[in-house]
Amino acid sequence: MQPITLHSFSGGIHPQENKHQSTQTPITVLPLPSQLIVPVGQHIGAPADVIVAVGNRVLKGQLIAQPKGFVSAAIHAPTSGKIVAIEQRELPHSSGLQGTCVIIDSDGQDTWLEEIANGSRAIADYLEADNEVLINRIRDCGITGLGGAGFPTSVKMAVNGKNIETLIINGAECEPYITADDKLMQERALETMRGIQILLKLTAANHCLIGIEDNKPAAIKAMKEALHQVHGEHFINVVSIPTKYPSGGEKQLIEILTGKEVPSGGIPAEIGIVCQNVGTCEAVYRAVAEGKPLISRITTITGESIEQPQNVEVLIGTPVKHLLDFAGFKQEKSLFQKFWHSIGAGSDNSAASAAKPRIIMGGPMMGFTLSSDELPILKSSNCILAPSQKELPANDVASACIRCGLCTEACPADLLPQQLYWFSKSGELDKAEQHNIADCIECGACSYVCPSQIPLVQYYRHTKGAIKEERAAQDKSNRSKIRFEARQDRLDREAAEKEAKRQARAAAAEKAQAAKKAAAAKAAEEAAKNGDANPDESSPAQAAVKPEPVDLDKLQKQLDAAQAGLKKSMDKVAELKAAAAAEKNGDTEAPIEAPIENMEVFEKAVATRRDKVKLLALQLAEAKKSAPVVKKEITRDDIEKKLRAQQDRIDKTKQRFELAQEQGSETLPALQKGLDKQMQKLKELEEELAQFDKAGA
Amino acid sequence: MSSILIAIVLLATLAIIFGAILGFAAVRFKVEGNPIVDQIDHLLPQTQCGQCSYPGCKPYAEAIAAGEKINKCPPGGESTIIALADLLGVEPEPLDAEHGAEKDVPMVAIIREDECIGCTKCIQACPIDAIMGAAKQMHTVITDECTGCDLCVEPCPVDCIDMVPIATTLQNWHWDKPDDLIATTEKPHETPHETPHEKEVH
What we know:
The structure holds two protein chains of two kinds.
Chain A (H helix, E strand, L loop, with lengths): L27 E2 L5 E5 L9 E2 L6 E2 L4 E4 L8 E2 L4 E10 L7 E9 L7 H4 L13 H10 L12 H5 L8 E6 L8 H8 L1 H15 L3 E7 L3 H13 L6 E6 L8 H9 L14 E5 H13 L5 E7 L7 E6 L4 H8 L20 H5 L7 E2 L6 E2 L13 E3 L20 H5 L6 H9 L3 H6 L10 H5 L6 H75 L9 H6 L6 H33 L14 H28 L9 H28 L4 H29 L1
Parallel strand pairs in A: 1-14, 9-10, 9-12, 10-11, 13-17
Antiparallel strand pairs in A: 2-8, 3-5, 4-7, 5-6, 7-8, 13-14, 15-16, 15-17
Helix pairs in contact in A: 4-6, 5-6, 5-8, 12-15, 17-18, 19-20
Chain B lengths: L1 H27 L6 H9 L13 H9 L11 H12 L18 E5 L9 H5 L5 E2 L7 E2 L19 E5 L37
Antiparallel strand pairs in B: 1-4, 2-3
Helix pairs in contact in B: 2-3
């Protein structure tokens, strides 16, 4: 293969490497811990679904949680034992939040699942196997990126249709102290190289570049030998790159090796590149060729508080304390957490409880402080750092920014850290976004060089989160708006439909009415034609078409009412006039029922009522003249009926009267009056009956 | 003399031509409705809670466009008021307490499902159809869509709806802002750094 022309990314820093401490001894397998804490959400994407129950016995490599959705990863039992709890526990994460964890009590046997132990899951001729089979195997084995972010490998490798030219294998391991990948490449170069071959087959890339920083000569040598062994020199190149932090950043490594820049906000696949960590390659090989799921990883345990810094192969879920005990943790030398600002929600307690040794998961640049040593190792935990006070002194309080520009020179992503700092500090999210804060890889180079010790990267982390949150809120509000408008439309539509139905019903009723009328008219016509129509005999059909006959009684009643109203109004006016006169005379004691100003209103009312009375009288007269006087046949029964009704009424009134008398009610005089009137009526009726009888006789 | 006439005629002709173009454009590109209403509506939080005394965000946006005050939206809070003030070129005012206070944390409604009697009252109250259910069937809130407007709480005859803060998960958690300390302020016992940088490594 052609020699590779190396490029460089702008910025970067050269911190003390501190890698030699942990590379002196070979990788040791950590003794089995008595209890394992296995979180089901260790990767980017949805946490896996637990498929075991408390009390179940599990074997090493047995699936205990299956992936939920596309971007997710399976979780397997790291050793054989009994599940003692499935509960919410604090996760080793900078947030200090809790997540579902499966707690397994080890039985000490470390018995593999039968299928894995007897090799029936192994795919021997993996380079001939179908890509789908390989991808499924990688997914089933829960392989995630071991470089740090923990992105499910099967998702990353599902590159169907994408034109991938170059596979880049990240063996740069640029962060100080960490040597896990270095040791892996030295001791397990062949497995790693075979894993790379599998990935190369999956991506169908033309060639593969393995980038290793030149401070790892042993690893480079081992990898070159392995390459020779697998006869892959035509496609694969082991490239030694200059040591500079953060050359291990995905975008930075791509730029170094190919000179291509990943577009802002994009992923490497857009420029035909897929990038994988060396550890992931080894895990892929184990999954495919041995059928073993990802249940352990190589982790560096280092720092001045550790007696024997080294790399260990540790089961996922092993408590950090177990690791510290194994490597010899010197409490007295350790840096105490009380000097450090607490992070996240969960570590407030740790700040309060002073004198807790400070343990960092990850490297000194990008790692985070663990709130307790009971937290487990995850698939992405590449380093446990226990520094001494002298080694990592507490940072001083930040001074004001002096605009020296060192951060801009150090930024590997070509951003303007100083500007981003101002925008983050003042909460100008839109401006920070315009300055491409999303492209910040949070490497911490700016904070490292800052002479004022401003925690720059912490500001950017916050701002990135705040921008994400704001965008989510905006998305939600847009959705709410759409939903609200859809609902409004629906309500309007329903109302319109209801109205339309109502109108349709009204129209139908009108039509029916018209049809009825038409039928009646026709019937009348026919009757007239037939000549047997009797004008005296008013048929119901005729009644319907004729205008309603004027009801004389009704008119009379209206007239009476109008007359009574008129009288009342006139009385009122007279009363008011009298009151006004009294007031004029100075007789203020005269009761004024209504304000004198209302006089006009009453006078007007009198006038209208008078008009109404006149009108009604006229109508009545006319009606009497025009209407055929329908003489009602009065029978004796009618009068008797009336008489009886009157008698009943009087009885009732009498009862009420008596009751009122008993209670001494104020209505007594009114009742007396009513009773008198009723008696009068009764007498009248009796007389009428007598007259009728006389007339009849 | 003739040159003046030519100038006048020319200008008059131009005026007529451009007048015609403008007149045509005014008809052809007529903007339906008031575009500022949409801009204001976009800035409002779309909780549709009605705390501003208008039946939804759009009506309030219309009212603002017609001269209503911009400080009546508690869910939007100060940031919305500032954004509206920027848009409309008016002075930001403090939130009108009459319409409620800004909540510290976003809330969502949760129905205690075993207590729900299936009366559908909350479904009718929800301005964005974020409650699922049917008569005499258990109802439930689509938490991802709930704007936390509180409107479903009051109609519930059995009081089985709780307003709870949105839980912080690994997906929506983000870092706090570092403490704003500079050397001139009193030196604290803790430093604002949580990521170490080995400066004095030997």
